[in-house]
Amino acid sequence: MSRRYLIIFLAAFLIIGGGRANAAGDGYPEQVDFEVMKDHLIGRTVFEIFNPFHPFHPIMLYVPIWIVPETDKLSILKDGKEMQVEGKIIAHTSEYIEIDQLVEKYAHRTVVRKQYPVHQVTAVDDVKNIDISPYKQVIMMWLVSLLLILFLSRALRRKEPLYKSRIGNLIEIFVLYFRDEVIYPNMGKKQGRRFAPLILSLFFFILLANLFGLIPGSSTATGSISVTLGLATITFITTQLFGNKDYWRHKFATPGVPLWLLPIMIPVEILGLFTKPFALTIRLFANMTAGHVIILSFLGMIINFKNGWIALGAIPMAIAIYMLELFVGFLQAYIFALLSSIFIGEAVQEHEGHGH
Fold first, then answer.
1. Count: domains in the chain
2. 37 to 219, 297, 347: CA distances (angstroms)
3. At what angle do helices 262-304 and 245-252 cross, to 10 degrees?
């Protein structure tokens, strides 16, 4: 068994450490910097899938660029020649115009952000278009949602008892644990039955999104702050929409607090309404982004130093962080579901003695 691992490690060392010249010659960046990492984590244009037959020529799956109704156009005077630039104008200041420019790259139309000094621009045709191009994270979110619906629906529609299937056993373990150890203790049985589908949906969606993001060439949906904000907003709206009178009385007339202190406590309580979803948003986003950045940093050292021997240390460290990311993926899904159940439970449970 150890010999097999040694062969795999040496193969990875040779592939990553020895082929950088070829990769750079194909138009890939020679340095792994912040822009390269950002393009890998939140890039919008292409999925790169490892090709075992041509390791330095991955299979490229391009994301469509959808701009409605048409692109902005700039006329640029450069080196005495006038050229047309198409894309989506991002910023227009007195010094420069920043535009997501549509260019031909790797034999495909893609997006590159560029800035042009105002003195070079002779004409601006800003059509106020709407960019509805999906980022890779959006596509991964769609894929995870579809697989989650198909996966769970198929498991629950099986004719034989759920415990007779491996998938059913796995689902039952998670469902029963969350019901008995997370949802019921924080909400009670009555409200727990009501909100269990929501809590479990949040958990399974985040878990699958986290794990799918660890597949090389894919993207982590929960690594987008827009996605984590959307999930936190679901918890926030549910909490406020179903909050009972005891919950709102605690916010605006906290029992046991002197009247003169209420002008201080009420703003603090209102602020607390928004700090909870903010914490949910940042915690999930930061944890799912940090691990990927560390992995890219370790592997990027091999390329930046142009020394294959660095792979002897970088690859084991990257693998160790990758294994840790598997644990973090489960942990963050659990924490998000746990905190959501606590926040919703505070709003829907009846609190004894508040009415007296």
1. 2
2. 12, 8, 41
3. 100
